[in-house]
Amino acid sequence: MSAAGAGDALLRVGEPRVALVVVDDIARAYDFGGSHPLRPERVLLTYDNLRALGLTEVPEVFEVPARPATEAEITAVHDPDLVRAIRDIDAGLADPSFGLPFGLGTPDDPIFPDMHGASAAVCGASIVAAELVVSGRAVHAFNPAGGLHHARRREASGFCIYNDPAAAIAAVLRMRPDWRIVYLDVDVHHGDGVQWIFYDEPRVATVSLHQSGRYLYPGTGFENETGSGDAAGTAINVPLPPFTGEGDYLWALDKVLFAVTEAFAPDLIVTQLGADTHHGDPLANLSLTMRAYPHMARMIHDCVHRNVAEGRWVATGGGGYQYDTVVPKIWTIHFAEMAGHPEVVPGQWLEDADPTEVSSPHLHTIEASVERVLEACLPRLSALAA
Ligand SMILES: [Zn+2]
After folding, report:
1. pTM above 0.90, yes or no
2. What is the pLDDT of residue 13?
3. DSSP one-letter code for 187
4. Residue whose C-alpha is closest to residue 381's, from 307, 302, 304, 306
5. Average pLDDT of the segment spanning 193-207
6. All domains in the chain, ordered by first residue
7. For residue range 118-159, what is the model confidence (pLDDT) as tens digits?
8. In this prediction, what percent of the chain has a pLDDT beyond 90?
9. Backbone phi, psi, residue 29, to 5°
10. 166-196 burial: b if 16+ Cβ within 10 Å, else e
């Protein structure tokens, strides 16, 4: 049976099995202020696109309201001291400088009203997406407001306060303690928060492709970060040189994603779909053009149906700082593929620079990284899956 055949069987036409979590209010509330690069509009305009293209009306798609994460769901991945500090700042009980040891009140993570409520709402939306997929109500579910992958156990970081992908993964492991989960992070920045939170958790494999930490925040995500203890081999990092273009990027993604999921045989995949790998992104230097994203979406979707049990896929948004142009289009491309309707994406969205003019070739460097990482990790992943 072909991979496409498996997908068709799981996603029958007319059966509402692809969930879109409704998060307009959540996106508006999680706002560091008008001069901050992470804009709520990236999410709001994604919804506008999805509606304009009819993707919320196709029979395969249903919309689901979110709920806030509970304190227990947040402290499953965060130190209670971090949560307490945020609540105290929100309530005016603590001087804002009290937040600095927790990464709050910094230029990246300035203090804003009701940080706990806004961040718990983003977490809850990703947990709702996970619950829909675990329960079988949805095959795939998308929370475009999610993907706050830099938050650490005890520290807000990189525009992220609570780590919603990590909270969703922890919620899945609570519901299904015997499951294995792959976390795939295609944001241009290393998915460090999720990696460190699950660094010694053998049921979770984290895969991150990103601009090398030698040149970009957060400065981590090298080939030799592979997990610790029983979980050695479950952190998979592909650092990419600046100006890596779509040909080399998609080669690496295809190679790593299929190899890891084949070896680890996950019960569910969580993807962080950061849209800052585009050549025009103001905060980073990878060089993908718009034409890369339908291929990326298709590749992930094919892999999900081939190598993930029942095609269970929870997707979040992430970074992306061309917030009113490129980012909402990229997430719409991903959701159109997820919903089985990639044909609705307007051809003019893909008109972009000539890839050879915005990127430089790095295939040999990338091949060497990928080879090194797979050699270290694949035997361990296979052993953990056995
Ligand atoms: Zn599918």
Report:
1. yes
2. 53
3. S
4. 307
5. 98
6. 3-63+125-151+159-385 (3.40.800.20)
7. 999 999 999 999 999 999 999 999 999 999 999 999 999 999
8. 88
9. -75, -30
10. bbbbbbbbeeeeebbbbbbbbbbbbbbbbbb
Record the tokens describing residue 58, joined without a space. Answer: 């196709």
Q: Which amino acid is at 297?
A: A
- Ligand 1 mean position to 337 CA, how many Å? 8
Separation CA 345–CA 270 (nearest Å): 23
φ, ψ of residue 22 to 5 degrees: the values are: -85, 120
Please choose, from the candidates 170, 163, 143, 9, the residue with its C-alpha nearest in 3D space to the C-alpha of residue 76: 170
The identity of residue 1, as a single letter, is: M
286: tokens are: 């990878």
DSSP helix/strand/coil, 343: helix
Cα(93) to ligand 1 centroid in Å equals: 47
Question: 280 CA distance to ligand 1 centroid (A)?
Answer: 29
Q: Which residues are catalytic?
A: 150
286-298 pLDDT tens trace? 999 999 999 999 9
Distance 295 CA to ligand 1 centre (A): 15
* Residue 46 φ/ψ, nearest 5 degrees: -60, -45
Which residue type occupies 12?
R
Which tokens belong to 2?
Answer: 């072909």
Give me the pLDDT at residue 275, please. 97
Amino acid at 135: S
